[in-house]
Amino acid sequence: MTNPKDDPEYDEFCDPDNPRKIKFEDILAASRRVVGQVIKTPCAKAHMSKRLGMDLYLKEEFLQVTGCFKERGVANTLLLLSEEQKKYGVIAASTGNHACALAYHSSQMGIPNIVVMPIHAPITKINKAERLGGKILLQGNNMAEAKLFAMTTSKEKKMIYINGYDHPNVIEGQGTVGLEIVEQVPNVDAVLCPCGGGSLLAGVAVAVKHLKPDTEVYGIVTDKTYSMVEALRKNERIFLALEPSIADGLAVNKVGVNTFHNVKGILDKMVVVREDWVARAIMTIIEEEKVVVEGAGAVGVASIMAGLFPNLKGKRVVTICSGGNIDSTTLTRALERGMAADGRLMKFKVTVSDRPGGLADLCSMLAGMGVTMRDCVPERAWVKGDVFSVQMKVIVETRGYDHSRQLVELIKKHYKDYYFQEMNEKSEKTAGVKRGPCLAPNPVCMQK
């Protein structure tokens, strides 16, 4: 019989046969330990509170130096290393926020570090981790191969491998967010927490439930990053094939050993929100709160906007905006997708006269009702009817669904041939989103 410890991927801190229990006292100790290492971020009341029908507070973790809450867990773990461990250094496999946090804090403390990334990792992430002090090694075609290389290297060089979402000291560090929330919003009724591998959710749940047992804690995932939902439903950690997600910070195909065992029994519910709503939330947060958050940081606001929390109307709610590291390309796509989902971008086809003044009449009509033309492509070869007509493929910007409907009526009134994509505002607000099964042993929502 082989010894599991001989497996190159065996991690004594994340052992399936020996999950670690996260204690409130250790989270409290971590909060004192990381003072001066990480920023105590604001928990500001959102301008959109009145419109959403609740007192909504945003825990602004995107204000950390590297733009993400991951610094808390990394700093706590590094500060707990022995002098000998600090001499050998630390290693991790990551392409995102954990890589940047490890690079920054280990270089600040003078601890040797290695960050292993797949060979196809985005160049922007490689450059950022290097700027923050990381020694980058490109190995493997995917994260699984990069992690195998990192763990093998850790054993060969006696370096400490730091799992970004399951190391016990990492979870304790993330739990300091929960302590700050209770301190900053003492009468909080509910906390909405993004969940990928689960370190933030586990730490926050332990901290908040210890201090305020009646406060509801919800884990939020998207319909493409729901490995924790499936794990809790089946009562075992399962492998979930990943699709590209706007909330790439939540894209973990198998949740952590320790996180899974620590959220069971104390979490109130897991909630799944559709990715279109995340794009919409990113846009709304930028427009109304004047801050930029990444997809993972916007899922809490997205779930509220999607109507998944009617039980929280009139309550005091904190949503954790876990990070702000979104690249410009993804941000552009998110804003475009958000505007389309919000009914503010509209495309249609209309056949107009191909004689002088035909297109000018259409443009004049759009301008007259305050509609901005974003794009316009003429199609002449495949138009049915006379040769003096041209079909225009048009993309316009409107003020919303009501404005778009006015445009539809105007086009129908003045032209014979047209085609509009179905506008489905009602179903947009209700379809494709769900709440998971209740997980609390004694549900607070049933008592109120």
Automatic annotation (TrEMBL):
Keyword Ribonucleoprotein assigned: no
GO biological process assignments: isoleucine biosynthetic process; L-serine catabolic process; L-threonine catabolic process
Cofactor field: pyridoxal 5'-phosphate
Pfam families: PALP (PF00291)
Domain called Tryptophan synthase beta chain-like PALP: residue spans: 38-323
Signal peptide: none
Gene Ontology MF term list: L-serine ammonia-lyase activity; threonine deaminase activity
Keywords: Lyase, Pyridoxal phosphate
PANTHER family on file: ACT DOMAIN-CONTAINING PROTEIN (PTHR48078:SF19), THREONINE DEHYDRATASE, MITOCHONDRIAL-RELATED (PTHR48078)
Protein name: L-serine deaminase
Species the sequence originates in: Spodoptera litura
